[in-house]
Amino acid sequence: MEQQLKAPPEVKQVAEFLRGSGASLKTRAGALGGKRIDYFKGKNAVKALLSPAFAKVKGVPKITTEEEATKLLQAVNAFAFFLRVQRGPSTGKSSTTPRILQINQEQMFAPPEYYAWFYEGSQWTTYAGGVLMVVIMLAGVMFPLWPPIMRLGVYYLSMGMLGLIGLFFVIAVLRLIFYIITVVVASPGIWVFPQLFADVGFVESFIPLWEWDLPKKKSKKKKSEKEASSSKGKGKSKAPAGSSNGEGAYIEEIVEESAPSQPQRRSRSAMVEEVEDEDA
After folding, report:
1. Which runs of E-coded beta strand occur in 193-246?
2. Residue 100 near residue 89 (C-beta atoms within 8 A)
3. Which residues cross the membrane (predicted)?
4. Mind listing the domains of the chain with CATH numbers?
């Protein structure tokens, strides 16, 4: 847009920060004029300007209060880096589908409002990735023309990678065999490299060296949640039956009192009592 080209350097720097990954600005996908577009809530942008990451950015005004952040974001909005929009219903039945957006005629910045991005940010990473992909494809196609020493280096590198993958499978099989033996000899069994398949780094996968296969203890939080759900289930079973007019009735079993000399006999009689609606 032409307005974005006229923006001062500090305003463009703020928009660059918000659009980048350093701001951690939460964005959602919307539909504006049949096109997919990102939008965010104003209060999230205010939090991004008050974060320590923005304080490290050079060439931008220092922000210490929410009022200063709102004023700076109003300046960014004035140069159409993002525009105020109204959020409509979802374009599909699922809650994850984009919502319909419509540009508001009155442009201003307020934390409770929604704003759609009309600025893509720096594209150097996209261009660099495209150039790198083209270079890799050309290098693969022209592999027969490589010098012999380079082709030999690629051959040894590929053999080394295959060797590492094979070693990983050998370790996995050996640790399984060792675990089965220790289950019989020294129950409950020992796992060698217990973090081998865990979502950790390469070095952490081999630490610790071994570990007993002990069952994991359930946390107290899960137990309290189960007790709460069971108590709710009991409470629901004793809840009165509601009627269409907001009133309910319940049946109570009454034990008839008899003389001491005679055995007590139970008779089931129904008593209907009106229960007032709590929401009234």
Report:
1. 210-212, 241-242
2. yes
3. 124-146, 153-186
4. 2-122 (1.10.10.10)
